[in-house]
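User: Here's a chain of 151 residues. Predict its fold as tokens.
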Amino acid sequence: MKIAVLTGAGISAESGIKTFRDSDGLWEGYDVMEVASPQGFAKNPEAVLKFYNQRRKQLTEVEPNAAHYALAELEKHHEVTIITQNVDDLHKRAGSSRVIHLHGELFKARCVEEEDLILDWKEDLNLGDICENNHQLRQHIVWFGGAVPKL
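Assistant: Prediction complete.
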């Protein structure tokens, strides 16, 4: 049997990942257009890089929860594809092998000029971190106003 599962922020909230829309969520204290848009990056790339570096650091401090593991277990009996809006790696860490990230991934970086040039990236991303073609790298995240590439 083939099963497709769509997940969002709720599945990772149980692991301690703050959601964006909760009253104490990530957008509290941040203007979304300042840290999650092409305009924000053009205006203050350091602030945007710092915001996502903080998200990446938080991700290293949490673990998959029972829901992530249950979906991985389901894969032992069925062909399961997880389509997630989350930018974390918790599904993969739990053992799921077919995960489609609609909004990008925190542990990846991409070239600002060549969107298909995507690199694995575990550490902080800073101004001056460049790709093989000497262009600035940024987080591999779909920003507000940007196209969802896997849609």
